[in-house]
């Protein structure tokens, strides 16, 4: 979401600091304005991240996560842990980001 615009996208990648999606049809976003990314995790409410677009390449959009609200950090950690081969990597990233 950006302003009054909303696009449905497929999630391609997710980390503590970045999100990758496909580029949807009718993409007409303002590249220098922030985005609110709502990620459907199968539970309510959706995971909400605040990000800026970093790159557009061959139908793939890359966003840099600028802010994660307190109520979203735990669901984000849970989602990442469930899909990581080595959860210790997440713990190390959290330590580096000062979250733990």
Automatic annotation (TrEMBL):
Name listed for the protein in its UniProt record: PilZ domain-containing protein
Natural source organism: Kineobactrum salinum
Lineage, highest ranks first: Bacteria, Pseudomonadati, Pseudomonadota, Gammaproteobacteria, Cellvibrionales
């Amino acid at each position: 979401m950006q302003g009054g615009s909303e696009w449905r996208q497929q999630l391609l990648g997710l980390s503590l600091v970045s999100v990758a999606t496909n580029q949807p049809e009718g993409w007409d976003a303002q590249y220098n304005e922030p985005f609110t990314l709502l990620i459907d995790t199968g539970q309510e409410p959706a995971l909400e991240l605040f990000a800026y677009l970093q790159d557009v390449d061959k139908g793939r959009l890359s966003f840099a996560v600028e802010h994660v609200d307190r109520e979203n950090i735990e669901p984000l950690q849970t989602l990442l842990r469930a899909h990581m081969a080595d959860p210790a990597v997440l713990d190390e990233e959290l330590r580096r980001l000062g979250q733990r």
